[in-house]
Structures are given as structure tokens and as C-alpha cells.
Inverse folding.
């Protein structure tokens, strides 16, 4: 079962800090879009250098040598507007607290980071789109994968039926399908899938390591 999400001060600071970083980045780009700071080219330039471009895994020329590697993390701190950002940050606050309560702060950071990378791997491996991909949803789906893994592991340990877990996974699949249709194919479901698998796998690995230490 998931522990009550009461966080200590360090955990609150890290979670708030992560949310604040995303808010500041998108806030600056939004202000630039409106002409309040910098230029309206700031968002385009930020995407060019920080978004995930699948073509960079093939024959596209990067803007700087490390870009094909750094984009596996930097894309997760960029968003496509305030609505995209706020939806993701609300999810991060709700799900992040649950993950920290169960895995601890270090476990949360590891799961989040590996899920972001996994989301990039999923997008790079499966997409056919030349468009940039941005957003924290790969990492967020990894956090969801962690919570669902714990539910699955707890039910297995107690000898309970796994149908409720399967229904949750099927519901996530249907949600992605509906959003993909509503957004006219502009949903990076590949990132969600990669993040979910990475989060599930990372959480299982952490559980195995903890059992080895006992």
C-alpha cells in the first residue's frame, strides 16, 4: 500500500523546487511570447537546443556536440504552453508525493530521472515525427508506473487478483488513445510508454536492491 503522503522538509523543498524550475522556464518563455521580455524567438531557440528531436538520433546535425545526449533530460523541463505546464505540474505534485512517501527522496529523484530518459528512448525509437517533443509527461508516466508497480507487487505478495491493476493499465491506454484522437495525433504516446516502462522497471530494481540489503 502507498504510505500517507506526508513529506518532510527536504522532500517538500525538492518537489517544490522541481515544480518551480518548470514554472520559471515556461513563465519566461510565455512572457517572451507576449513580448514582455527578450524576443519572441526565445521559445523557438529554446526548443531548437533543448527539445527532443528524434532526427538527432539519425543523420541530423546537432547545434552542439552533446545535444543528442542532453536532450534525453532537457526536453522534460520544457512545455508547450501554460495549460500543458499546469496540467503536468499538478500531476507531479499529486503523484510525486505518493512516490516520495514510498521510495524516499533519493528513490523519487532516481525514478523521475530514469523515467524522463526512458520517455526519450521510447519517443526516439517509435516516432516517425520530425517535430520536437517537450514536456514532463514521460517522467510523470514513470511515476505512475512506479505506483502501479507497487500496487501489483503488494497484491502479488498478498495473493490477490491482479485484475484491478490490469484495469488501471488498460484505462491509461484508453486515455492515451482518446487524447491522441482529440489532439489530432499531437500526443507523444511513445514518450508516455517509454516513461511508464522505465518507471516500472526502475521501481522494481529499487525494490530488488532493498531486499538484497536486508
Amino acid at each position: 500500500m502507498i504510505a500517507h503522503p506526508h513529506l518532510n522538509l527536504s522532500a517538500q523543498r525538492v518537489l517544490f523546487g522541481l515544480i518551480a524550475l518548470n514554472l520559471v522556464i515556461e513563465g519566461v518563455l510565455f512572457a517572451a511570447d507576449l513580448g514582455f521580455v527578450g524576443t519572441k524567438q526565445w521559445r523557438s531557440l529554446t526548443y531548437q537546443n533543448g527539445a527532443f528531436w528524434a532526427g538527432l538520433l539519425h543523420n541530423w546535425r546537432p547545434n552542439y556536440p552533446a545535444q543528442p545526449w542532453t536532450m534525453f533530460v532537457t526536453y522534460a523541463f520544457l512545455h508547450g504552453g501554460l495549460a500543458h505546464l499546469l496540467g503536468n505540474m499538478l500531476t507531479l505534485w499529486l503523484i510525486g508525493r505518493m512516490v516520495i512517501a514510498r521510495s524516499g527522496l533519493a528513490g523519487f529523484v532516481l525514478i523521475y530521472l530514469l523515467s524522463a530518459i526512458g520517455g526519450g528512448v521510447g519517443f526516439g525509437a517509435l516516432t516517425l515525427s520530425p517535430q520536437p517533443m517537450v514536456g514532463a509527461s514521460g517522467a510523470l508516466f514513470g511515476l505512475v508506473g512506479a505506483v502501479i508497480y507497487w500496487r501489483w507487487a503488494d497484491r502479488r505478495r498478498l495473493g490477490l487478483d491482479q485484475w484491478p491493476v490490469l484495469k488501471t493499465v488498460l484505462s491509461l491506454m484508453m486515455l492515451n488513445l482518446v487524447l491522441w484522437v482529440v489532439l489530432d495525433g499531437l500526443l507523444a504516446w511513445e514518450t508516455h510508454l517509454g516513461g511508464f516502462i522505465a518507471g516500472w522497471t526502475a521501481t522494481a530494481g529499487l525494490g530488488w536492491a532493498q531486499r538484497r540489503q536486508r
Notes: The mean pLDDT is 94. The CA atoms of residues 119 and 195 lie 4 Å apart. The first helix runs from residue 9 to 33.
